[in-house]
Structures are given as structure tokens and as C-alpha cells.
């Protein structure tokens, strides 16, 4: 992939995550309530946040690359969203996202995902985007449905975090269905 694709929406700046974002990433990822749906145990030290930022940067060098944007509102990092596991032959990928507790309920993630999906469909030529969501993560399920994602099934015990196995719902969006709702 080429230079990092920065994106702008009405209120947000979607940009590359950098080392100086580690404290904000740690604040989000160390919050047990936030991580109960993320698919990972809460972070316990800043080094884990630094390693996660490095992992996201490394995604762009993989044969099936991914891009993870930091979501910035008024100069503050409030979350991230990304497209990953890009299969160029199938024109498909997965998406994931998280938002700081204080930024929820303001329509920010919907705005960020619209910008990201516009970019992915235009520049990655995506035919399909899928999301795996915990069945009890109602806020994410509603958001994805508002964006046009359709429920396709359940992957039984596909996730493992918090010392437990978790079912995951599969939702998919086809490029031809995308209307930037």
C-alpha cells in the first residue's frame, strides 16, 4: 500500500495511529467495559498499547493488508476503526472499531465508518465487507444495520477472551448495497 490514507468527515479526522497515541489507546483498551465486546482482554500496561499501534502499522505491509485509522475529534483521539484481512482477489475485507466511552452516543462512529467505507469501496474496490460482532453488543449491531449490513449467521464459539468462548454474529455489506446512509 502507498502513503497512509487520511480521511476527513464533517467532524472527524481519520489518520494513522502513531506512538504518541499510546496513552489514549491504552485508556480505551484498558477499560474492561469497553473491551467486553472487542475480542481481547483489557490491557494492563502502556507497553501493550504501544505494541498494538505497531501491529496496526505492520498490517499495511502484509500480503493481505489492513488499514487502521485513529479517530480524532477536536485534536483528541477518541477511537479507531479499520479495514483488514483484505483479499484482493475476492475484493473483500473485514472491519472493526472501538470508541472511548465519553465519545459514544454522538454519532461519531457512524460518521467515521461512513468515511472509511466510502474510501474502501472507492479505492480498495471492495465488493464485500464483513463484521464479526458479539451477539449482546447491541449498539454495534444497530450501527452496522443502519449502515446497511445484513445479518448472515452465527459463528459458534469463534471468539475467545475473558477466559470464555463467545459466539459471534456475522454481518455483511456488499459494495452494490452501499448508499452511505
From TrEMBL:
The organism's place on the tree of life at top rank: Bacteria
Record-given protein name: N-acetyltransferase
Annotated InterPro entries: Acyl_CoA_acyltransferase, GNAT_dom, N-acetyltransferase
GO CC annotations, alphabetized: cytoplasm
Ranges where the N-acetyltransferase domain occurs: 12-171
Keywords from the named record: Transferase
Keyword check for Iron: no
Entry-linked Pfam families: Acetyltransf_3 (PF13302)
SUPFAM superfamilies xref list: Acyl-CoA N-acyltransferases (Nat)
GO molecular function: protein-N-terminal-alanine acetyltransferase activity
Secretion signal span: none
PROSITE patterns: GNAT (PS51186)
